[in-house]
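Fold this sequence, please.
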Amino acid sequence: DCFFKALKICKTSGCDDNHFDTLHILKLIECSSLKRVVLVPKSSPNQLILKNVQIFRDLNGEEALLELSSHPGYSISPMYSSFSNSHYFGPFLEIGFGPEENAILASYDGTFITRVNDGANFNV
């Protein structure tokens, strides 16, 4: 709500769509409202394609940010800053489609995609 109010103030004070403050507020709005990652058909124009996929294909354990070549400037990002807890499968952290600066740093060992900072694995 506060970001949308700030955007309205920018617009009413005469800032155009390319003004630094307008662009900054729009980025803050985008960062605070990540979209969930969902499965889509392989032919979908909305499919997410990793920018650094070759690092994962090589299976050498290298770390890479989960940035997207399909959506430049975006990444696979955590939706929250901490884990939630589920009665069925324990602690979990939802991921989403977010700005590149929030990209998850991960490695792939041939079996698991693992978030580097805490060892959490992707579960599909």
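Helices lie at 2-12, 20-31, 53-57. The CA atoms of residues 2 and 119 lie 35 Å apart.
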